[in-house]
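Weekly modeling sync, notes
Attendees: S.R. (lead), two postdocs, one rotation student

Agenda item 3: backlog of single-chain predictions. S.R. asked that every request posted to the team notebook include the full sequence so nobody has to chase files. The rotation student volunteered to paste the first one in as an example of the format we agreed on. Action items at the bottom.

Example entry:
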Amino acid sequence: MHYGIKPAEIEGRLFLNSGRTTSIVIASTTREGTKVAEPVVEGLTRAILDNRIDVLVIDPFVSSHRVTENDNAAIDIVAKAWNRVAEEGRAAVELIHHVRKGQSGSTGEYTVEDGRGAGALLAAARSARVLNPMTKEQADRAGLPTNRGYFRADNGKANLAPPPERSEWFHLVPVELGNGPADSIDGGDHVAVVERSPCPLGARCRSSPERIRTGRS
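Predicted structure, as returned to the notebook:
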């Protein structure tokens, strides 16, 4: 709705699974040890190939396994199973992972190394990104009335990540779904949609929100 994308444009190209009816659990730990659910791996791979899926997003990663989160050996098995899905399915697999609550690096911001649980997941990942919210100080520098809804995405470890001025910044905007009653005041439910932020700290943007809407890079 927000970007003017019509249902016909994504029909047969966007597939959603809430996990409520069909859970995706790729590995589990029992008394016999950690075992990969081979039927799940094979089913996922076949579905990716049959539907010509380019990108598979698993959110959250923790729901895709039944192993101890801090067990490096077990998490390594889970990560390698997802690597197999990506390789055999010839697709990118993105695992959404949470950081440890109340903890961050020496700079006061999170890095990819602040992910919850075992470090084996990061070690097995080809690429890793971390999200950090805008601080009040950064909002003041940008001349924004509030820092709420603004965040940036950085790729890599702390020593490889760009400074805030050169990061990719984004902004959450509310979108009305229009699913309320005809006499509803607020028009129904609202959801947050991500827009690339137009350089809040004066940095040069890679692309503007308008270019994103029109599909130009």
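Discussion: group reviewed the output briefly. The first strand starts at residue 27 and ends at 30.
Action items: rotation student to repeat for the remaining queue; S.R. to check formatting next week.
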